[in-house]
Specification:
The protein has 93 residues and is mostly helical. The chain has helices at 2-39, 55-88. The chain crosses the membrane at residues 12-32, 55-76.
Length: 93
């Protein structure tokens, strides 16, 4: 019986998680653009298929992009779960 309630909570959390994911993606994108401008001498982040950019630029941008998105995703997911627990009293497994 407890598993059924937990499954319902998960389904109820999905729309919240989706909205938080979209917002987190937008936040992470803005943070990456800002961070890359700071470390990339004001230039836009390189596209992997841009033949005028060097390998090290492309790989550094990809590493920074991945790190920022991972941290923002974890923070948004954890914050959303904490918020749901405060509101409902249950963790949204």
């Amino acid at each position: 019986m407890a598993k059924v309630k937990q499954r319902k909570m998960s389904l109820g959390y999905r729309p919240v998680g989706m909205v938080l994911g979209i917002a987190g993606g937008m936040l992470a994108g803005a943070a990456f653009d800002r961070a890359w401008r700071a470390v990339g001498n004001g230039r836009e982040a390189p596209d992997p298929l841009d033949d005028e950019r060097q390998w090290y630029e492309v790989l550094a941008a990809a590493a920074l992009h991945g790190a920022i998105f991972s941290v923002v995703k974890a923070a948004v997911d954890r914050g959303g779960a904490e918020g749901v627990r405060r509101i409902t009293g249950r963790w949204p497994a």
